[in-house]
Amino acid sequence: MSRAGEFAHLNPKPFNLVLLARMIGFVWWLLGALIIFRWSDQLYGKKAGYFGVTLWSFCPIVLGYEQLATPELPSAVASLAAVYAFRGYLLLPTWNRTLVVGQLLGVALLTDFTSLALLVIFVFLSFVSQSRRADYRSLPFRLHNQVLHSVLSIGLALLVVNMGYGFNHSGSTLGTFGFPNRVPAGFHGTWLGRVIVPLPAEYVKGLVRRWHEWARPPLIDGEDKWPVEVGGRSPSTVGGDFPFSIQAILFGCLILAARRQPGSPPLAEALTLWVPLLTFLAMSTRMVAALPPASGTLLATPFAIIITSKITQCYSSRRQIVRWLAFGLSVWCLGDCVKSTHDRFFSPNRTTRFRQDLVRQGRKLGLAVPEPRTSVGSGSEERGLLYRTFTESEGDQVDYALYVPESYRGDRPFPLLLFLHGWGDRRNSPTDRMYAEVGLPFTLKYQSIDFLVLCPQGLSGSWQADGDDARRALELLAAVQKQYRVDPKRISLTGLSSGGSGAWDLAAQNPNVWAAIVPVASSCDPNQASLLKQTPCWCFHNRYDKSSPVQEPREMIERLRKLGGSPLFTEFSDTNHNAGERAFVLPELFDWLSRQRLP
Predict the structure, then answer these.
(1) Which is more confident, 365 or 564?
(2) Where are the alpha helices (DSSP H) in 45-94?
C-alpha cells in the first residue's frame, strides 16, 4: 500500500493510468471471444459460435477478472490461443504453424507460470494424434519431423520469454540467480548450481518461489456444509465456480463424447478441448493445489464454453422435442449466467464489501472519503455504532463502542457479540479510535446485523484471561447486560489477531459464559483444547499469514475434533494478516452465530 501511495503521488492522474491498465483486460476478453467464435464455428457451426460468444460475455468468472489489471484473464486467453494454434498444427503439421505455436506458447508463458502445463498437454495430444493415424510406415519420418518442430517451437517460446524480460541474466548458471532466503532452493554447491538456464533470472526465481508455495501442506476441511476457501478443492467440487447449467451440459457432453456417436468430431479433435479443461481443473484440486480454485476455473472456462456450444447442433434435429429441449437448455444456461453475475457482483454483501474496500483504500492513500453515519436517534433510542466511556472498578476510564441494531426495541432478549481488537489497535492517545476502525466494528458501519456488539478498547493490546484488559472487558460486559436486554445464553466472543488469541484463552478459562467463539487470524495454545471441546467454534485464518502462522489454529482444530468437538475452520488462501476483512462480511457467519446458545 505504500507503493500505491507513492504511485498516486508521483503521477498527476493515477486513476487514468489504472483505467488504462484495466482496459487491457477488455482487449484480452475480445481476443478470447474471437477465438471462441472461430473454434466453435469450425466444430459446430455459426450458431455455436454466436452462442459461445454470448456465454463468454455473461460468464460471471470472466467478468470478474476482466475488470482487473491482473494476469489471470490474459493467461486464460493466451493459453486458449496456444491450444487453438496447436490444434491447427495437429491437423496440418507445417513449419509455418510450428512458428505460430512457438510464439503463442511464449506469450502464454509470459503471462503466468501455470501455462507451463501446456507443455504436458501438447505432448499428450501429440502422442494421441500420432497413434490415431493408420499409416505406420511413415511413423519414423513423422516422429523425426515432430521432434524438429518441437525444438523449434520451444526455442521460439524461450526467445519470446527472454524478450519479455529483456534477457535479464539469461544463460546464467542456476547457482548464481540469488534466490530469496525463504525459498529453500538448495542449488548452491551442487551439480544443479552449474546448470545453464536459458531463461531470465527473475522468471526462474519467480517460478521457484511459486513452486515453494505449491509445496505447502494440505489444508483442513470445513464442516457444516460450509465450503473452505483454500488453494485447492476436493475433486467433487472442482468446477464449483461454473454456473450449474454449464456443469450439467458439460456432463452431458462428456457422456456423448465417450459414446462416440456418428457425426462427432474425431477423438483427437475432442481431446484438444477436454484435456486442457480437465488439466486446469485438476491443477486446482487439493491433491495438486497448483492453482487457486478460481484461477483454475477461469483457465478452463473458454474450453468449457466451446464444448457447451455443441448444444446448438440440436437446433437442426428432425425431432421437435429435441429442438425445444436444446432451446430450453440454452435459455437456462444464459439465464443462469446472468443470475450468477448478479449474485456475484450486485448482492448486498458484495456491495457492502466494495464500500468497505473503497473507504479503506482511500484512507490509506490519504484521500478524502465520506464518513458513514454511525448512529441515529438520541438518548436511549440511539441506534448504530455508539462511542462511550466506561469507568471500571479500579477507577480507570476506558472507551468502548457499542453497536445497537435498528431492530432492537428492548421488548425481547437480544444476542450479544463481544469483539476484541488486535494489538496494533490498542489505545495510543486519549482520542485514539483505531479499535473501532478495523475488523467487525468497521463492518458494522456499513452492514447491519441483529446482534448487540460490544467493542472495548484495550490499553495493552493483550486479552489474556489473567490480564487487565480482559478483566475490564468482562466488567464492561456485565454493565451492558444491566443497561440492555441481553440474552445470557446467547453471548458469543470473537477477536482479531491478539484479540483472537484472547478469545481462545478467555473461552478456555470461562467456558460456561460463551455460546460460541470466533477467533480470527489468531495464535493459540492447542493444549487448551480439552477445555474448549464443548464450545462451538468457527475459526478463520489466512494460509500464508506470517504474523500468526496457520499451524497453531490447524493443530487446535485437529485436537478439538479428536476430542469430539465439531469446530468449523475456514482457511483463506491470502498471504497477509487480514482474514477479518473477509470473515466479518460473511452473512453465513452471523446466521451460524444466531443458532448458537448455551444449554
Answers:
(1) 564
(2) 46-58, 60-66, 72-91
Q: What Å distances lie between residue 546 and 181, 541, 550, 572, 576, CA to CA?
A: 15, 11, 8, 13, 7
pTM: 0.60
Contact 315, 326 (CB under 8 A): yes
Phi-psi group of 266: left, alpha or beta (phi > 0 → left; psi -120 to 50 → alpha; rest → beta): beta
Q: What is the sign, positive or negative, of the torsion defined by CA atoms of 40, 45, 48, 50? A: positive
| Cβ within 8 Å of residue 202, ≥6 positions away | 165, 168, 169
pLDDT of residue 183: 44
- Distance, in Å, from the CA atom of 389 to the CA atom of 476, rounded to the nearest integer, reads 10
Buried b / exposed e along 193-222 (16+ C-beta atoms within 10 A): eeeebebbbebbbeebbbeebeeeeebbeb
Which of helix, strand or coil describes residue 48?
A: helix
pLDDT in tens, 292-325: 656 778 888 899 899 888 888 888 778 888 788 8
Give the cell for residue 518.
470466533
Query: Is 574:584 a contact under the CB 8 Å cutoff?
Result: no
What is the C-alpha to C-alpha distance for residues 566 and 560, in angstroms, rounded to an integer?
7
The two counts, helices (H) then strands (E), for the chain are 21, 9
Cell numbers representing residue 545 in the block: 499469514
Burial class (CB in 10 A: 0-12, 13-18, 19+), 107: buried
Higher pLDDT, 431 or 515: 515
Helix (H, G, I), strand (E, B) or coil at 167: coil
Torsion over CA: 39, 43, 48, 50 (sign): positive
**Helix axis angle, 293-308 to 46-58, nearest 10°:** 150
CA atoms within 13 A on the CB side of 501: 18
